[in-house]
Structure prediction request, 151 residues.
Amino acid sequence: MENPTIIGFVCDHCGDMMNEKAKATTQNGTRIFPVYCAANFLPGTILDAFTKGADLVFILACGEHECHYFDGTGKIKRNVENLKVQISDLGLEPERLVLLIADPFDENPLARAMEECKALVEPLSPNPYKSDIHGIVEANGVKANGNGSTK
Prediction:
């Protein structure tokens, strides 16, 4: 795919990545959003990214026993499985949502995550919501209001 839009939600605790995140936010078509904990986001945020044209969304989380919060990694795993069903309901491939677990010994987990996501997005077709969100949403039987929301 040419010029994919990739959105990343990256846990602040996956190593010391502040400078790395700052550099990554400016790379071709990739936008990084730091989050306090990868499990601490609203699922609607992910769905909103897809309905606004993201070709791939990834979540970079701490390892199972590295999470600074009780069961954050387990929670995000359950949320991602549920979100994949909702993404399918939107008419998109569930492979567009990727959960990556940071290796605590990796010095550059975000760079590796971005490399992996670029390879994963390559075989996908562009997100159809990029071109006409209202037409696609209405074609799926949901009437969109004037601002692109479905509520």
Q: What stands out?
A: The domain at 6-139 is CATH 3.40.50 (Rossmann fold).
